[in-house]
Amino acid sequence: MAVPITIPFKASLLNSDKCSSLELSCDCSSISFQDSSNYTTNDMDGHASSLFTSRTITITKPDGGVYVMATSDVASADKVILPHASSNNKFTYNFTDTDEDGLYQVRLCTYPNWDSTVTYIKNVKSIVLRSGKLYECVANSTNVDPATDTDSAFWAEYTDPGSCSDTRYCTTQTIVVTCISIDDCYRKAVAEAFCGMQKNPCKDMCDNKEFMKAMKMRVVMDGLEFAACGFDWENAQDHVDILKSLCCCK
Fold this sequence. Notes:
- The protein is α+β, with helices and mostly antiparallel strands.
- The chain has two domains: 23-176, no CATH class; 181-248.
- The protein has three helices and 13 strands, in the order E-E-E-E-E-E-E-E-E-E-E-E-E-H-H-H.
- The strands form four sheets. A five-stranded mixed β-sheet has the order 5-4-3-7-13. Strands 1-2-6 form a three-stranded antiparallel β-sheet, with no helix packed on it.
- Helix 1 (182-199) packs antiparallel against helix 2 and helix 2 (209-229) packs antiparallel against helix 3 (233-248).
- The model has no long low-confidence stretch (mean pLDDT 93).
């Protein structure tokens, strides 16, 4: 008889308050975050902490470029990281000279290795890592090696759905960065607006181009905050694009 699952495995990038762990450094030099997946507290068969020896963290930048942190078995990694059991599970991405303001998406994927002693149940929809490939359980089995199940009677090769979908094994968090150039642009706009008002307090603000630019930026920045708080990332991207355009206005 199968044992009921009360605490399923779940990949996580959340902190103890169940909020995103992604955090921007005070000096705008890096983004820090943590892998808080419940490796040691889940009660799913085949998901013991010791079976998770691989993981991949993909950071997608505003320009579409990616930076990959992964365990040593992933050949395309930009930075090699340790398995969860050998790590404090805290990570930092340092901005480069070519990085820009915008949305930074952090995606964690972590899969358990196949274990010959585990009875895999189709309804649990387990996905395992075996010989560098992912396999999804399609029929109940024990000691059926996915790598040798060539007719896919018990295991079907699985392809990660990518950033479009979070699963039990993959999770995504996003952070908005405006401190690389946009914040300085806004501070400059506010300072110039004040100088204009100081020189001629009675001048109609509609004729004060610096003031109008600063007000436009303030409205858009408020909208960006509202969009980010509502996890409306498409709308947030639109706001970032407008802010960059305003900064280019003369």
